[in-house]
Write the structure tokens for this entry.
Amino acid sequence: THEGSSEVYTCLLYGTGYERVTSNNAVESDLAWAPTLASLAFADGVTLGITMYEPGTATLTDVTHPTAPYTRHRHPSWDRTGQSIALTGVAGGYDDAGTVVVLGPFPAAPTWITDNSAAGARVRHTRFIQVAGHYGDVSWEQFDGTCWHLYRYDGGAPVDLTAGQAFSFDNHRWPLGTQQVLMEKYTVDSERWLAL
């Protein structure tokens, strides 16, 4: 946000060299740099999908466009190769976690990991896991009606990594070089959990 509008900007480390990426009246959010720093993905307030910006060429590419039942795609998170993005699909009354390959053609159709249409579950912060041996795995937070839990998907059935916990987790991150996940817990500022 800059100059009174909710837009995407890039700048240098010390706040100089502002470059405006978007220019519209919509709200862009959930910015995520690719590991190579060659591309920036974000939730586009105009297309309601995921858009990719390449600063080297000043190119904007619509990676996804939501199709029914989804009304919006959010929370892009790159895998470590910069070739795939994990994302959240927002539908009317539920959400799903999925992935999409960003090698084209575009817009690309996500592959959905969850199907919460019957359960009505909410999902947020879908991310690729940055832990050796689990680089292709995807994690997300899902609401069970009482608390937000952390789930992991490795190609089999999704696993609740915080099963039995009677409090909510938020904004989880996978630091490189550790098998622990860093996340906020509603009862304290933050905690580290051995999750894998």
